[in-house]
Amino acid sequence: MNDLNGYDVEDLQPGMNACFSKTITEADIVMFAGVSGDTNAVHLNEEFAATTRFGARIAHGFLTASVISAAVANRLPGPGTVYLGQQLRFKVPVKPGDTVHAAVTVLSVEVAKARAVLSTVCRVKDTVVIEGEATVMITSRAQRAASELQAMPSVA
Ligand SMILES: C/C=C/C(=O)SCCNC(=O)CCNC(=O)[C@H](O)C(C)(C)COP(=O)(O)OP(=O)(O)OC[C@H]1O[C@@H](n2cnc3c(N)ncnc32)[C@H](O)[C@@H]1OP(=O)(O)O
């Protein structure tokens, strides 16, 4: 664990898993449109959305995907983790009011590079709405020790 209670890369093992859940509210969709600038009518305009194959407004895909980011940042590997990549497949639309459960599972760990690959799956009830994989950089005890050594004043 690092100072912020995130796992160090040395602590990670394939198969470790964690979940973070969040309900995607109307307010989230409106605020995400504002924050991102993505004002796509399929998210905001009920009349337009009713004419689409979804029949009603749906959440931004990247809003739903952000629950994965929360799972990675808050749960596993936790605080200090840095995203290197995230693959996403949007399988089923998420509607306002749906609760998204983001499950992350460690697939592989590369201790020397302080990297890991995680399976990232979002479900609403039992339905998979997003699946993909994340590549992340993780804090490392070895790197912390090396930096602390470098910071020490040298004795002549
Ligand atoms: C600009 C930003 C906008 C947004 O954020 S929109 C919000 C995020 N997106 C979503 O919520 C979409 C969620 N996904 C869905 O609702 C469904 O998924 C679709 C409506 C897209 C497709 O459903 P169906 O018609 O039942 O698809 P099928 O019969 O399973 O597949 C038809 C072809 O489409 C490919 N496909 C389906 N989903 C995906 C995907 N997520 N990524 C890549 N390809 C996909 C399949 O493979 C197949 O292709 P082949 O005909 O060649 O076999």
Account of the protein in words:
There is one protein chain. The protein is an alpha+beta fold and 156 residues long. The chain has a single domain (9-149), classed as Roll (Thiol Ester Dehydrase, Chain A). The protein is 29% helix and 30% strand. Strands 1, 2, 3, 4, 5 and 6 form a six-stranded antiparallel β-sheet that branches. Strand 5 (115-124) and strand 6 (127-137) form a beta hairpin. The longest helix has 14 residues, at 61-74. The chain is elongated, with a radius of gyration of 19 Å. Bound molecules: ligand A1D88. Ligand A1D88 binds at residues 40, 58, 60-61, 89-93.
Protein topology:
Blueprint: E1 17-23, H1 26-36, H2 41-44, H3 46-50, H4 61-74, E2 82-86, E3 89-90, E4 99-110, E5 115-124, E6 127-137, H5 141-151
Antiparallel strand pairs: 1-4, 2-6, 3-6, 4-5, 5-6
Bound molecules: ligand A1D88.
Distance between the termini: 34 Å
Number of helices: 5
If you consult CATH, what is the topology?
Answer: Thiol Ester Dehydrase, Chain A
CATH C-level category: Alpha Beta
Oligomeric state as shown: single chain
Sheet with most strands: 6 strands, antiparallel
CATH superfamily: Hotdog Thioesterase
User: What is the general shape?
Assistant: elongated
Q: What class would the helix/strand composition place it in?
A: alpha+beta
The overall average pLDDT, rounded, is 96
Sketch the topology as an H/E string, one letter per element: EHHHHEEEEEH
Beta percentage is: 25-35%
Annotation, overall tally of beta strands: 6
Query: How many discrete structural domains?
Result: 1
What binds here, in terms of ligands, is: ligand A1D88
